[in-house]
Amino acid sequence: MADSLNCDLKYLSPLQLFERVTEQGEKVRALKAGKAPKDEVDAAVRMLLSLKLSYKTTTGQDYQAGLPPRDLVLINNGTTKEEDEDFVDPWNVQTSNAKGVDYDKLIVRFGSSKIDTDLINRIERATGKKPHHFLRRGIFFSHRDMDQILDAYENKKSFYLYTGRGPSSQAMHVGHLVPFLFTKWLQEVFDVPLVIQLTDDEKYLWKDLTTEKAYEYAKENAKDIIACGFDINKTFIFSDLDYLGSSTGFYKNIVKVQKHVTFNQVKGIFGFTDSDCIGKISFPAIQAAPSFSSSFPQIFNGKENIQCLIPCAIDQDPYFRMTRDVAPRIGQRKPALLHSIFFPALQGAQTKMSASDPNSSVFLTDTPKQIKTKINKHAFSGGRDTIEEHRKYGGNCDVDVSFMYLTFFLEDDDRLEQLKQAYTSGELLTGELKKVLIETLQPLIAAHQERRKQVTDEMVKQFMTPRKLAFEF
């Protein structure tokens, strides 16, 4: 009997084992409460201890009620005081370090893989294109199963891209451009379909917005996304509030995910409490569903085995750790991921920006004068207190927000390195570095604004209409 149990357990995922331990613990409590015979209680306890041992052997972690395996838990769960300096979830990013989050620690604790030189070189060989500067500079720094995507591509098998945007305000800031600029590059070099989810339902649930206002923001944000230059024949943008009701494939996948994730799991992964509305608790399944090609029958001709690649910021990873655990149990392929670092607030890398704070970032609606004022007034400096000290000791690029922003938006590698050397040596002053950033962002945002003016409501409607794209499946 014990051998049979052990044989069964070795085929269970960490999450399934966690569920078995939880269920057995509840059974033991029920037996004790019901004053069951001692031998029956003892047998149930032995089973519980055996399950806990299997759980520890499989995960390397002691079972803790309400806390799923650590690779499915937020960064703040079960950490030591030293590790607890960084807090990351899909809604908040906080660190006490002026350099920002320790991404090497985050890779270890989230259980992802570092994007190393070998992987970057392989992407270059596969595409025949120079890697994007986001890859070269470690802005996209972590991945899950990118090697599988490249295996498929090298064997002439297709995949598709999925990314998204939570439309919490009418105006987007420059940090919001990062996943879209990179996704556009990926779409161009690999020539694959792209779906973009606008989670207006999420913003209705989390923010003080009406459904009408959330949907309006979704359409406005779609204009900024389209202005990045996406190909209408290869890209489908959808609002959850709009698309979910019209796609049986999408809703079927949501229900399948919902059936296989418990309330205990979402509490452990996302930190939900008993007082959160049930909409929040069920929302992760909605963000998971676009990871499966059967959610878009009009694009993939009903095929369910097309793998998905998701470029996103690392704070969205909890959603997709959950998705990857559920996928095999509902007959779907695990999505692959590419994770970016966080775009820092002007005030420093300790927090991510807020769309509700106009001074936390440079917005896509800002005028040249506003851009100049914001950077000069609010961009955190890595310079010294006096010019004399700065000339003598140099500036700190690791904490200087102007230099961080240039890492994202100054494409010339040689020029960026020159600025780093000059600032670090003290040759370049903070005001001069800010001037370079201003002169980099002003034309970039002005060009984006011009492209956005060309995006009509009719064009948005075309992008958001479910349809066949320019691919055969």
Task: Briefly note the CATH topology name of the largest domain.
Answer: Rossmann fold
Spatial order of the strands in the main sheet? 3-4-9-8-5-6-7
Overall pLDDT metric: 88
**CATH C-level name of the largest domain:** Alpha Beta
Write the CATH architecture name of the largest domain: 3-Layer(aba) Sandwich
Spatial shape: globular
InterPro entries: aa-tRNA-synth_I_CS, aa-tRNA-synth_Ic, Rossmann-like_a/b/a_fold, Trp-tRNA-ligase, uS15_NS1_RNA-bd_sf, WHEP-TRS_dom
Family: Belongs to the class-I aminoacyl-tRNA synthetase family.
Pfam families: tRNA-synt_1b, WHEP-TRS
GO molecular function, one term: tryptophan-tRNA ligase activity
What would you note in describing this structure?
It comes from Halcyon senegalensis. This protein has 22 helices and 11 strands. The protein is α/β, with parallel strands linked by helices and about 475 residues long. Strand 8, helix 16 (about 315-325) and strand 9 form a beta-alpha-beta unit. Helix 17 (about 370-380) packs antiparallel against helix 21 (about 430-455) and helix 19 packs across helix 21. The longest helix has 24 residues, at about 430-455. The protein starts with a helix and ends in a 10-residue tail after the last helix. The model is unreliable at about 70-85 (pLDDT under 50).
